[in-house]
Amino acid sequence: MWEFVGEGFVKFLPSKVTRKEYVRKLKGFWEDYRRNKIGLAGIAILTMFILVALLAPWLTPYHPTQSKYLAESLAMPEWVTVLPQFSDVPPTTEILAHWNIKNGSDFVNVELGNETIIRYSGIGIQKTDIYLQSTFLYSYISPKTFKYKFEWSSFSCYQAGYSLELILVTPIEQSFSLYDSYYGLKVKKSQDVPLLRKETGSTRRVTADSWDLRLWDRLGWHRTNYPTLAGQVFNNKGEYHILLHVVFETLTSDATCEVIVKEPQIIIPGLVHGLLGTDQYGGDLFCQLVYSTQASLMIGLFAALSTTVIGLIVGVVSGYAGGAIDESFMRIADVALCIPMLPILITLAVLFGASMYLIVLLLSILWWPGIARIIRSRVLSLRETAFVVSARAVGASRSHIMLKHIIPNVLPLAFAALVLTVPSAIVTEAVISFIGITPLAVPTWGKMLHYAFHAGAFQRFAWWWIVPPGLALMILALAFVFIGHAVDEIVNPKLRRRR
Amino acid sequence: MKGYLARKIIYALIILYVISSLNFVIFQVISPLDPAKAFARNPMLSVEHQEAMARLWGLDQPLSARYVKYIINMFTLNFGISFMKQTPVIEEMLPRLRNTLLLLSLSLTFNVLVGVSIGVLAASRRGTKVDAFAMSAGLFTWGAPIFYIQLLFVFFLANPSFLMLFPRGGMTTLPPPEDPITYISDLAYHMVLPLITLVVAQFGWWAMYIRNMMLDALTEDYVNTARAVGISERKVLFGHAFRATLPPFVTMVVLIIPTLLMGGILTEYIFSWPGTGQWFLYSVENGDYPAAQALLFLYAVLMVGGNFAVDLIYGFLDPRIRVGVRR
User: Which residue(s) pair with A135 in the sheet?
Assistant: First the structure.
């Protein structure tokens, strides 16, 4: 019982003794804790969440703020395709079609490759058609949208004109003219106008998606007649062909022309995506879920830590010092306990913009009184115990007694309070984000729920959007509750099970 | 006793004063808003109303004078005119407070009923499945965010694209039915989902609380005596053990009311319940600061009032506390 020896002697005691004492106490604590199954489960879950937070960049290839338009908005999780009714729902498909020659010509030399080079050398006034074709298989139900990308350029066209047309042919031999070098996307092709084009050297990048109004006009459709263009085009499963129709025309006797076309790319945003599907912008929800772990853990831990530190200091000082100090601290605590926390937090978030710091700061300002009161009542009884009284009797200073005798004895209590504050902080952050008047910059589960609530998860019954964030929130909060409950049972003898 | 009461009332008023000063600081001192714009010059109000509001808050006067006016206005319930409704805030506040209290009191009643019965049962059958259920429900409520449970219920049971068993939100169908019986049944129908979710999300806490207190009470000698005398177990449980736990239990009920009221902000938001919480969010979001400020004051009043009521109940139930304070 080293507490009984005088202060002067304590100073000369090797610090190892106290350290050993701590280690022994910690070991004893762990022995108690190990028997608590709920507590162990809590630690296991918490470890898992910490790992997820740390390993987030390796768990998902996307970044939460930059991943958009990865698939169709509100795409289902990819694993639903194991169910028979969803087995042919398309994932995000990017088709890079290789060109093959369908109809060649004697005047044209075609070099197939990544960049297919079409060389024309014509003699006399004539017109030459060639067709390149590429084939891909589409074996899913019709998508909502599609995009295509196509790039071409022409060089050294001397005395020659040319034109290109891109045609998509469906398995039932319907053909859709997607692009035409002369008219671009603008108008429907009419046979009366010549198809020639004489400029050289320019590279044209063509991208268009199925919502492009010009494309609808080009096909002579009107939006009211057809619900979706993509639905019309990809209505059948089977082999689709992309045809490239190139026309060369010699203007005078000796003409050369070189047209380079890249492989056409057709992108079909998936109706299923990843582990947890997508949000309204086609952003990856699994990625958001994983990254949100970081914010929740940080806010929970920091808020709880600062709350507990303030509560511990105030509780110890006011409990041990007593008198006017105690009185003033407890009156401040009375006021702080009466502050309507959530409304104030919402108001400040609106006035100043919500941030993690604001939430942590406010929670610690508003929540310390609860912990301070618990600690204070323990200190009140501790200050009358034999070892404190004796330390006082041999002339130990106030700060020494508080630091060396009182704080070590209230630490377990503070630790239990700390662990039990974390879930409340995590849930409060989620509430603020869920109300979402001013969203936090970082992804959080509350924010995900906010968008799910407001941006259409209900109308489309997007369970993959609304269930996981809250579930993660709940499980993490419960992990802390489990740990806190187990610690509380050990450090609060009153709660100990009567056997 | 009179002295005790007076002291407590004065103390509560001082706390209320401090918290409303805090509100003043938030809205008119540190806030980035221009007070004139935030409290008077709103295009929705007529010019006379704008002038009246500027006079009410003393917006052309220095900060100290504004502060005095603010405190006087708050404590005389003179909250000014709401921008959105263009009517005095107090006129809108009272019916909304009634709606909030209706939902709150019913949910509290159901929670306490369910919680007490499960808690008492768990304590009397310690170590059985009922006990384990009460304990796990208790732990669950500690961690489960209420708004998430409510979201799930709405999502699965009041969603036209899945199951539309209950109305999506609101207090009655619009316009409300005239016939009183239809009105009440319509109201009840709209209240089912908020009430169920509030009970599901909270009863576990009550059950665990009652169970722990009952376990303490059941070890007392008078319980053994009662059992030995041959009083039925049911009577021992409710008549002796539970009765002994009543004072702290009642305290807890009173203490939790302000917390529930603030938790109600989210409930009202999710279920579009026309109460104070929904109005608070609505006014904060739309810059209706006279209303927001008044509601913050209302919340402060309720918090302080709740704590004051607890002090009183404690004082009545446990004379030692009164003596202790007097010393």
Answer: A241
Q: What is the pLDDT along chain B (327 residues), one digit of tens a residue?
A: 678 888 889 999 999 999 999 999 998 888 888 888 888 888 888 888 888 888 888 888 888 999 999 999 999 998 988 888 888 999 999 999 999 999 999 999 999 999 999 998 898 888 888 888 888 888 888 778 899 999 999 999 998 888 889 988 888 888 888 888 999 999 999 999 999 999 998 898 899 888 888 888 888 888 888 888 888 888 888 888 888 788 788 888 887 888 888 888 999 999 999 999 999 999 998 888 899 999 999 999 988 998 888 888 777 766 555 554 443
Beta pairing class for A127-138 and A238-250: antiparallel
Could you tell me if B115 and B179 are in contact, meaning their C-beta atoms sit under 8 angstroms apart?
Answer: no
**Residue A423: its chain B contacts at CB < 8 A?**
142-143
Task: Determine the angle formed by the axes of helices B129-143 and A463-491, rounding to 10 degrees.
Answer: 110
Torsion of CA B223, B224, B226, B230, to 10 degrees: 140
Question: Residue B323 in contact with residue B4, Cβ under 8 Å?
Answer: no
* Half-sphere exposure at residue A47, Cβ-oriented, CA atoms within 13 angstroms: 6
Side chain identity at A291, as an amino acid letter? Y
Which residue is associated with the tokens 């104030």? A344
The token pair that represents A342 in the structure block:
């959530």
Grouping H, G, I as helix, E, B as strand and the rest as coil, residue A166 is: strand
Q: E strands within B254-320?
A: none
Q: How many CB pairs under 8 A join A and B?
A: 125
**And the tokens for A27?**
């070991």
Nearest to A142 by CA among A209, A232, A208: A232
With tokens 């603008």, the residue in question is A186
Q: Which residues contact A303 (CB under 8 A, 6 or more apart)?
A: A359, A360, A363, A364, A367, A421, A422, A425, A429
Question: Which DSSP symbol is given to B230?
Answer: T
Helix boundaries (H) for A394-497: 398-400, 407-435, 445-454, 463-491
Closest chain A residue by Cα to residue B144: A474
| Cβ atoms of B239 and B231 closer than 8 Å | yes
Give the minimum alpha-carbon distance from B87 to chain A in angstroms, rounded to a whole number: 22
Q: Do A340 and B162 touch (CB under 8 A)?
A: no
Tell me whether residues B285 and A334 touch, CB distance under 8 A.
Answer: no
Interchain contact B262–A (C-beta under 8 A): yes
Q: Which chain A residue has its CA at the smallest distance from B306's CA? A: A338
How far apart are the C-alpha atoms of B272 and B168, rounded to whole Å?
A: 8
**B156 CB contacts (<8 Å, ≥6 apart)?**
B162, B163
Say whether B280 and A343 touch across the interface (CB within 8 A): yes
* Tokens coding A26: 């910690």
Compute the distance between CA of residue B208 and CA of residue B201 in angstroms, rounded to an integer: 13
Secondary element (H or E) of residue B104:
helix B89-124
Distance, in angstroms, between A279 CA and closest chain B CA?
Answer: 16
Cβ of B307 within 8 Å of Cβ of A337? The answer is yes
Average pLDDT, chain A: 83
Residues 144-173 of B with CB under 8 A from A: 144-145, 147-148, 151-152, 154-155, 159-162
In chain B, residues with a C-beta closer than 8 Å to the C-beta of A335 are 15, 18-19
Q: Does B135 touch chain A (CB under 8 A)?
A: no
Bridge partner residues of A91 (DSSP): A272
β strands within A13-159, DSSP E: 93-96, 100-103, 108-111, 115-123, 127-138, 147-158
Question: Could you write out the DSSP letters of every residue in B32-94?
Answer: SS-HHHHHT--TTS-HHHHHHHHHHHTTTS-HHHHHHHHHHHHHTT---B-TTT-SBHHHHHH
**Cα–Cα distance, B247 to B216 (Å, whole number):** 14
Neighbours of A139 (CB within 10 A): 10
